[in-house]
């Protein structure tokens, strides 16, 4: 029996648009609620949300019955972190602050078993192999790994052509907020110069064999990014959804 098909990776390869949402509560109950909405993919965020390996594992478990594909964002692209979340059952990783082709190649290798990579082969005791119930897991898992790298600095933008040449990368995700900060426009990601860089980057990625990704919680901006070439786009953040709805509800009563 081979490793389970990565449906998100397959959809990207077919050129299908994938609509996602950020899961930032770091809680399986909240993430399961979000999974019922039917997003194509959900980011279990380990960079800016208080997640650890066990909370990521729990969210992978509660998402299993649903169609939303889990994308795990690690805080950094360390090989030992990658190994742990892959063994926990993640198939798609989003790695922040990638700036060079060498970094990208190292990430791709960390996600794969030898000879293509350096992933440790201890899957016999891991959830990823169904605790040894998937007999051919280690022989077939490499093809189901999906790597998304975040380019969110000018160094990354300048290295984008080289990053797009790396085998084993499925998508490049532009981070508008950090990119704006790196360009000297902290808190002003919608300013013209930042948007010009984003537009050029999305066009370049979409013209390659990689998928272009981005986040925007503003509908019109998100649609603009799609028009510029974004294929997988996150359109919401659960924490903001709750906060905004709660504040709007209270304000309606305070104003009466």
Protein topology:
Elements lengths: L6 H7 L4 E6 L4 H8 L5 E5 L7 H11 L5 E5 L5 H9 L4 E4 L5 H10 L26 H4 L5 E6 L2 H5 L1 H4 L7 E4 L1 H7 L9 H15 L4 E5 L3 H9 L4 E6 H18 L1
Parallel strand pairs: 1-2, 1-8, 2-3, 3-4, 4-5, 5-6, 6-7, 7-8
Helix pairs in contact: 2-3
Task: Give an overview of the whole structure.
It is globular and about 60 Å long. It has an 8-stranded parallel β-barrel with strand order 1-2-3-4-5-6-7-8, surrounded by 8 helices. It starts with 6 loop residues before the first helix and ends with a helix. Strand 2 (41-45), helix 3 and strand 3 form a beta-alpha-beta unit. The chain has a single domain, classed as Alpha-Beta Barrel (TIM Barrel), CATH 3.20.20.60. Helix 2 (28-35) packs parallel to helix 3. The mean pLDDT is 97. The protein has helices at 7-13, 28-35, 53-63, 79-87, 101-110, 137-140, 154-158, 160-163, 176-182, 192-206, 219-227, 238-255; strands at residues 18-23, 41-45, 69-73, 92-95, 146-151, 171-174, 211-215, 232-237. It contains 12 helices and 8 strands. The chain is an alpha/beta fold and 256 residues long.
